[in-house]
Structure prediction request, 303 residues.
Amino acid sequence: MKKGQFSGVHTALITPFTKKDNLDEERLEQIIEAQIQSGIDGLVPCGTTGESPTLSHDEHDRTIALTVKFANGRVPVIAGTGSNATSEAIRLSRHAQQVGADAVLLVNPYYNKPTQKGLYLHFKAIAESVDIPCILYNIKGRTGVNIETETVKALSDACANIVGVKEASGSLEQMRAVIDATHGEFHVLSGDDNLSLPLIESGGDGVISVGSNICPAYISNMIHLALEGKFAAARAMEANLAGFFKACFLETNPIPIKTAMARYGWCEESFRLPMCTFENEENRARLYAELDALEVLGAITRR
Prediction:
């Protein structure tokens, strides 16, 4: 048995802001309700897509607490509580546990560029500070460091509550190496929508998805087909999403996905500086064209 159960599609939630740049609690509740009604397997607040680096500590705590409240036990909440400072990550993780989060997602410490020993000690200290499951978040492109497979294996062996990794390295080879090293007893979730099916085919468990903010039911159906071994049907669905997945990264995430959500009334097109609206309006037009194609397929969730 795996250490916990975190398979399927977990949406990396946007954080909606009002026009006055405050946390929009009403729209957050609406988004969460729509996600759950669409059959999503879990919710991930305060990750990269949730603009966590620009949330105040109070906002960060509040967003996690509200997500737990609105989910009301219907799906797991994996709270983003990582930081480049171990002490801060411990505080955030303890708070998430106190308010009822089911697990925490721990991004690589960014900017510091720690060694593998430093990464091991960092994640071990956080895991030992809480009782709930911990999922590592490996994203070198954002943080400047990669958690090597040997380090992931050592952490899995040392800490019973380190139960998985969100792999956003972009390397399917590395994902497979983690699966092999942990003998399939460790959750490996894709951090890239377009690698979800190859990962599942290799023995992975699903995805923490950006795209499922806008079409949760469609992506959930696709991933569950793959988890059932129905890869031909899943790939046929994935082919319809290829352009949309690319459009989600025409500019820095979460600019495209939050713009898409705003187009359908789920939030204001409001970002926290230094995140901002589209720099290139041609990219907006390309995003809208992909959304129009998905709408024809019935894959868009409207407010």
Strands lie at 8-12, 42-44, 78-80, 103-107, 134-138, 162-167, 187-190, 206-209. The radius of gyration is 18 Å.
